[in-house]
From TrEMBL:
Chain ranges of the Bacterial bifunctional deaminase-reductase C-terminal domain: 26-95
Protein name according to UniProt: Bacterial bifunctional deaminase-reductase C-terminal domain-containing protein
Superkingdom assignment: Bacteria
A Pfam family annotated for this UniProt entry: RibD_C
Species: Streptomyces alanosinicus
Gene Ontology annotations of biological process type: riboflavin biosynthetic process
InterPro entries: DHFR-like_dom_sf (IPR024072), RibDG_C (IPR002734)
Gene Ontology molecular function, alphabetical: 5-amino-6-(5-phosphoribosylamino)uracil reductase activity
Length: 104
C-alpha cells in the first residue's frame, strides 16, 4: 500500500516500503488525494485535519489504560464536531469504534 510520510525532519523513506515524503503542504496532499487517508500515530496531523474539517470518519482503537495526563484527541479549544457511532467491536484487549462526522 502506498504511504505518505508527513515530516519536518525525515528526507529518506527507503526504510519503509512504498513510502514517500509529502511534497508540498499536508492540506494539499489530503485535498488533492484520490484515496482514503489513514493516519496512525500523529496527533498533530489529526488536529490539523480536524481544524480544516477534512476528517469524515474516525476509527479509534482504544486500549483500557488510564494515564491521567497527555494530549487529547478532541481538545477543549478544538472545533466542535458532531459524530455518529457506526460500529463498536472488541479487538483482543482493545475496542475498535468507528464514528462518522454528521452533517450540521
Amino acid at each position: 500500500m502506498p504511504k505518505l510520510v508527513v515530516t519536518r525532519t525525515v528526507t529518506d523513506t527507503s526504510a519503509w516500503a512504498n513510502s514517500q515524503v509529502v511534497d508540498g503542504g499536508l492540506m494539499d496532499a489530503v485535498k488533492n488525494g484520490k484515496r482514503d487517508v489513514i493516519i496512525t500515530g500523529s496527533l498533530s496531523v489529526v488536529h490539523a485535519l480536524m481544524a480544516e474539517q477534512l476528517i469524515d470518519e474516525y476509527r479509534l482503537l482504544t486500549f483500557p489504560l488510564i494515564l491521567g495526563a497527555g494530549q487529547r484527541l478532541f481538545p477543549d479549544d478544538g472545533p466542535r464536531t458532531s459524530l455518529e457511532c457506526l460500529s463498536v467491536e472488541r479487538a483482543g484487549a482493545a475496542v475498535l469504534a468507528r464514528y462518522r462526522r454528521t452533517a450540521r
